[in-house]
Write a structure and sequence with these properties.
By secondary structure, this protein is mainly α. Helix content is 78%, strand content 0%. Helix 5 packs antiparallel against helix 6 and helix 10 crosses helix 11.
Length: 307
């Protein structure tokens, strides 16, 4: 919450209220619609990674948002992946190693796609020179993530890996996904579209609040903020941290803090509330409590490793 305090410290609240009083509701509705379409594409990307598995995009959309929404309510960020994995294995009957492999590959593809966009922006937007160290950090992390996938694929033949059934099956699933080059390429293309639509959502919000930034700058601001908000300890839903990140990055583009605060709050709501609402509505319908899933998943994994 310390970063949240820094975000609001010294704000001219009268100016903030004035900025928000003229917000365009139709544009906010459009921004919400664009973001939900992007979220649907994200589920499509996940479905592409599932070969020979009978599960719909609609179901993956719900499962994805159940995890994201629960994570928004919890201080532990891995809650999202743990919940999604638990639902798929305990509710939808998908093998744990395959489900975990698709989740991991999703994250790697996400990192590669978003880093590519940041890298392109670095050479187009002059102000990006202020973030050279962050861009190089993203590139380094991307290389590490891709290298980790290659390492897992290579380790399939290792005796140590074969001793643990779940780990061996996970490594085999990762290797199988890595060899599905067409699926990976399609998933990567969808990921790029997803992040560009996220940036478009932010830009529409900026137009709604009369913030003078371009679509590319809006995309960079949101990507940078998401990288920042997920890299540092934060309150549930990155409350305060998200606003601080947005205001901090916008400052390098000449945007006043009071102008940027309204944009940050509205963007935060659009990006975080849908998943939270979906989780609240659908998680109880899965038949067991979310924490029961976590306990069940840990117990099942421990059982497999112990065999």
């Amino acid at each position: 919450m310390g970063l949240g305090w820094l975000a609001v410290r010294g704000l001219d609240w009268g100016l903030v209220v004035d900025n928000l009083s003229g917000v365009s509701i139709p544009l906010l509705v459009l921004a919400f619609a664009v973001f939900m379409f992007a979220a649907w594409l994200r589920a499509v990307r996940w479905r592409v990674l599932f070969a020979n598995v009978d599960i719909s995009v609609g179901r993956l959309f719900i499962v994805q948002h159940e995890g994201l929404g629960l994570s928004n309510l919890m201080p532990i960020r891995v809650t999202s992946e743990v919940t999604q994995l638990a639902v798929l294995t305990l509710r939808d009957g998908i093998g744990g190693p395959l489900a975990l492999a698709t989740l991991a590959m999703e994250r790697v593809i996400d990192v590669v796609a978003s880093t590519l966009i940041l890298g392109v922006a670095f050479f187009i937007v002059p102000e990006m020179k202020n973030f050279t160290i962050f861009v190089w950090g993203a590139i380094t992390f991307t290389v590490f993530a891709v290298g980790l996938v290659r390492l897992f694929a290579w380790s399939e033949s290792l005796t140590l890996v074969r001793r643990f059934k779940f780990l061996a099956e996970f490594v085999t699933a990762v290797k199988g996904l890595e060899q599905q080059r067409t699926r990976l390429l399609i998933s990567f293309g969808i990921s790029v579209c997803y992040w560009l639509l996220v940036g478009t959502t932010a830009w529409i919000v900026s137009v709604a609040v009369d913030l003078p930034i371009s679509p590319l700058v809006a995309t960079v601001v949101i990507l940078g903020t998401i990288f920042f908000a997920t890299a540092v300890p934060a309150a549930p839903s990155a409350l305060g941290t998200f606003e601080f990140g947005v205001i901090y990055v916008l400052g390098y583009f000449g945007i006043d803090r009071a102008d940027g605060f309204g944009f940050a709050v509205i963007s935060h709501a659009i990006f975080f509330l849908p998943a939270t609402v979906i989780a609240i509505v659908f998680l109880p319908r899965e038949g067991v409590g979310a924490f029961g899933w976590v306990r069940g998943l840990v117990g099942a994994a421990a059982g497999r490793v112990g065999r």
